[in-house]
Every structure is written in structure tokens, then in C-alpha cells.
Specification:
heterodimer, A: alpha/beta, B: 4 helices, 5 strands, 17% strand
């Protein structure tokens, strides 16, 4: 039995947090930053992106999905820690499905933090598919954080 | 338009942004579900380590309910006593010697998910194992863990059982009922 993954254990690995611009993901980032301050672990905020399944190959070059994801991540970090302190959170933009990106990242993390639901889904959904998948398959403990206010309906885009 | 009336979110009005982040002064207790399974032991271990950093008390909660097939003709086991023994043994196994963390023990009758959600109403954090004694071999996320992750008003930590390193693993049951 390993004692790894425990808060405050020596040789701590990063706290990974999934960000997608949703209210619960931003609260997850807030939780992760506070936990990192408590334990001294680095915080790694990850945003993922994929080409929409409906995008034709001819149109795929018209929009910079990676840059858009990076903007969402940067804005969330700025909201949570402030522009001046953004450097304390490592920001990673990864192409892939959110669930598999976070499960992969969990292999080298002590904790993965996710919002209870992202921008997808429908009104009334309590636990999104990505959060559920990560809670099921992660290689380390997973924290599911709820938005403190009712989620806003997803805006177009 | 919103899910503010959905189960589990009805107390959101009592929460202010950031109130549940770790290290908040005066934050509530850390509630952890215990059933004697390996997952619940790891959950308690995680909760105690976290409480050692935050100074919060840990509330270890175990629940029992009458089996649905229960008839009136058998000798009735003392479910409360059984639970108390499992809880005691789990805390004794996990709490490090000399730990200053306060661990309270609660035994409640009811479905585990319901009992944990009730206990989490004023908690800063709810910690559960990824699966308990129920279910089947290969199950990765138990129904109780999934239910509380969906409905708890506070953040929920799901702690997985460490993968066996070489030694044969016979399943989640470690403490006989």
C-alpha cells in the first residue's frame, strides 16, 4: 500500500485541474489553488480542445481552436489568482477529449480537481460525463467541485 | 433555466464563493464515509492527512439499514454494534499514532448515500472511497460515491484503492462484517 497521493506527503506531485470556462471549473481552479497553497504543491491547469465532429476539413483551418482554449484558460486563471499572480499556475493546452486528457494527466499527479459539470450537457445535469469519467478512471484521488452559484446556460460557443 | 431547484443544490444560497476552499478559516468539518472497505480506509487516510493541514475536525460516518429481504423470524443482529466495531477498527487502523486530528464517529441508520448527504450539509468537504463493499469485481465507481459526487453541496473527494503491487488482491472486503 503506498502512502502517496496524501495531502502534504513528501515528494508531492502537481495538483491538476481541468478548466473549460464553466462556472464549476472556475470554482475547481479556485479550490485547487487554495489546496496548492496549503500543501505547497504546484498547480497545473489544463484545458483541452478537439476539432468539432461537424467541422469539415476545409473549414478546420479557419479557426484556431488551440488559441481559443488558451484564451479560456488564461481568463480563468486571471479571474482566480489575478493577472499578476498567473505565473503560480502552470497552464497547459492539450488537444484531446477532456476526460482522456485528465485521466492521462492524473498518472503524474497527486490530485485531480474537476468541476461537477462543464459547458456541455443540459439544464439540471448534476454530474457531467467528463467529471464522472475522471472520478471513475483517474490514477489518483479526484475532487469534484460544484459551482457556488447556479450555472449559467452555455452561451453559443 | 437553471438547476437551482435540483436536489443537492438547495443549500447553495448559504455558500459564498470560496467558502469551501481548503484552508479557509472557520470552514466546516471534513466528512468521510466509512464501511470497512479498503476504499473507505483510503478515504479516511486522505481525510486525516488533509485535516492535519487544515486543522478541521474529521467526522467519520458509517451507516446501516435493514436488508430488504429481512424477515421478523431471525435473531436480529445488533447493527449498531457491528457498525461501531467496524468504525472503531477502521479509525484505529488509519489514525497515525500521536495524531492531533480530531476524529468523531457517527453511526446512522439509513442508506449510505442519504446519510452522507445529510452529514455533508454543513461540511467543507466530503471524502469517499471509489467503491465500497457492494457491487461486483471490476466495478470502478460505486453507486454511493457516484450519487454523492452528483448531489453533495460541498466538494467531494473520490479516493481510489491503491493498485496492488505484486500481492494478489482478493477484492475490496477487508473487514468482516
Amino acid at each position: 500500500m503506498s502512502a502517496s497521493h496524501l495531502p502534504g506527503a513528501p515528494g508531492a506531485r502537481p495538483i491538476v485541474v481541468g478548466v473549460d470556462g464553466s462556472p464549476s471549473a472556475t470554482q475547481a481552479l479556485r479550490w485547487a489553488v487554495a489546496q496548492g497553497a496549503l500543501t505547497g504543491q504546484p498547480v497545473e491547469a489544463v484545458v483541452s480542445w478537439e476539432y468539432p465532429t461537424a467541422a469539415a476539413w476545409t473549414a478546420s483551418g479557419l479557426f484556431d481552436w488551440a488559441a481559443d482554449a488558451a484564451d479560456i484558460l488564461r481568463a480563468a486563471v486571471a479571474e482566480v489568482v489575478g493577472e499578476g499572480s498567473a505565473a503560480q499556475v502552470t497552464q497547459r493546452v492539450v488537444r484531446g477529449h477532456g476526460a482522456s486528457v485528465l485521466v492521462d494527466a492524473s498518472a503524474d499527479a497527486d490530485l485531480v480537481v474537476v468541476g461537477s459539470r462543464g459547458l456541455g450537457g443540459f439544464d439540471g445535469l448534476l454530474l457531467g460525463s467528463v467529471s464522472q469519467h475522471v472520478a471513475t478512471h483517474a490514477h489518483c484521488p479526484v475532487v469534484v467541485v460544484r459551482a457556488t452559484t447556479a450555472p449559467q446556460p452555455a452561451s453559443a460557443d | 433555466m437553471s438547476n437551482s431547484n435540483a436536489p443537492g443544490t438547495n443549500v447553495s444560497g448559504t455558500h459564498v464563493p470560496g467558502a469551501n476552499v481548503p484552508g479557509t478559516p472557520g470552514a466546516g468539518r471534513i466528512v468521510v464515509g466509512v464501511d470497512g472497505s479498503r476504499g473507505s480506509k483510503e478515504a479516511l487516510r486522505w481525510a486525516i492527512a488533509q485535516a492535519g493541514l487544515t486543522g478541521q475536525p474529521v467526522a467519520a460516518v458509517i451507516s446501516w439499514d435493514y436488508p430488504v429481504t429481512y424477515g421478523g423470524r431471525w435473531d436480529v443482529p445488533d447493527w449498531d454494534d457491528n457498525c461501531a466495531a467496524v468504525l472503531q477498527r477502521t479509525v484505529d487502523d488509519v489514525l497515525p499514532a500521536g495524531s492531533t486530528v480530531t476524529v468523531t464517529r457517527t453511526i446512522a441508520r439509513g442508506h449510505a448515500a442519504e446519510v452522507l448527504l445529510d452529514a455533508a450539509a454543513d461540511a467543507a468537504l466530503l471524502v469517499v472511497g471509489s467503491r465500497g463493499h457492494g457491487g461486483f469485481t471490476g466495478l470502478l465507481l460505486g453507486s454511493v460515491s457516484q450519487h454523492v459526487a452528483s448531489h453533495a453541496p460541498c466538494p467531494v473527494v473520490v479516493v481510489h484503492v491503491p493498485e496492488p503491487s505484486g500481492a494478489a488482491d482478493t477484492g475490496p472486503a477487508e473487514v468482516a462484517e
